[in-house]
# Entry
Amino acid sequence: MQSLTKKEILRSFVNSSQSRIKTVAFPPSFDETEWEELDFYGWVDPRSPQRAYLVTTHASGVTGIELRRANSEGARPRSAMCNLCHAVHRHGGTALFTARKAGASGKAGNSIGTYLCIDFCCSLYARGLKFLPDNQPEHALPTQTRIAQLCHRLDGFVARVLTT
# Structure
């Protein structure tokens, strides 16, 4: 992924209001980001843990998506698979995130949901730069195949957010 500035990221959001964009908080580690190893940049808002963001390069250019983490308070942590990288996390390493659709559809209240890695390290899992315990479903596939499949699923998710 190309290196992005905070300003470029803030201009990229397709499903958020200007007032909400003004409240986006970046993680303290933003300036140390190793962009060349990422297919997308994602993070949980340090000031509001129910808000998260995902930014990637899509057909229409840099595309940012505001996400809302589903409230799992009181729920027992369980194993779940990330829908992007297919990493299986034990004990709450994934969560259901919803994204308001872009445009009029989103203003009408339409959204989509998907399970994502809470740490947004999908690119690192696909490249074998970060590991999870236990058998991972796609670990036997070649690295380039895992990356290609992650990118394909990521493009599909972004396309569903953009589809009105």
User: Anything to note?
Assistant: The beta strands are 40-44, 51-58, 61-69, 80-81, 88-89, 94-100, 111-117. DSSP finds five helices and seven strands in the chain. The helical segments are 6-11, 18-21, 103-107, 122-126, 143-162.
